[in-house]
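SEQUENCE AND FOLD
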Amino acid sequence: MTTIPEQERAADALPLTGYALGAAGAILFSAKGIIIKLAYAEGIDAETLLALRMLLSLPFYLVIGFFAVRAMRERGEALPSRALVLKAAGIGALGYWFSSYMDFLGLIYISASFERLILFTYPLFVVLFGALFFRQPIRRRALFAFAASYAGLAVIFAQNFSAIGQDATRGTVFVLVAAMSFALYQLTARTVIGQIGSKLFTCIAMGAAAAATLTQFVLLRPISALVVSPHMFWLAVAIAIGATVLPTFLMNAALQRISAQANSTIGTISPVATMILAVLILGETVTPLELGGAILVMVSIGWFTLADSRR
């Protein structure tokens, strides 16, 4: 017979597992910029690297999609209409191709830790674009968080601009566009995900993004560019599997055990992890002023995410 203390320990173990899975997923996501920087040091360009990422990660999503469709047929559920599939494909191209491409271009010019902080502000664009395009109410806390976080980013940008000049502007603009396009992806994907389910949507979206990425690659680069050194190949594997597929599954596993609120709060460790990895692996330096700006960004976005999820 199970005693009450034993039942309590069993109940406590599940959330702890969820927190661990969520933290692992956030850290792996944060490593993406570090690996991309290492790949750029090998001389690869953004278009080829993005194509390798898609080629290596796509098979996993195709397998998931196959089983998702089979499960729907076994349950006697109708498959999504062609119009819905095309809508999911267009949204996927926006979120997984265009946004990723802008992010990859931005990392050519700015540090991995600065890039992660800019991307970290995308929830604010979700609120702002929701008010502008979808008639969603805008909350005062969002405006406060937006002002505070971008004050912190302005401090870091000033430091970067004084060190690398116009490259800081180019990189910042690219990553800002990535954050904005990902926010639009989040807003437009919600309805479609509710209609066809997250697994099938992800597979359709990734398929469309892969098609867009490979089309872009064929137009801009020779096919022979995909033949890379063994070291470069393993960096591409690390981006595709370690920083794309695996953290996706970890985050989903975490959501089965803990609330979305808790998972969002854990996500605030992502910029911290990126900054630490950038210092340890890339040799990036962080001035006290940049650290202060980073803290301002993380605290404001973390507070907004926590308050909004409670709401």
In short: The first helix runs from residue 4 to 30. Residues 14-310 form one domain.
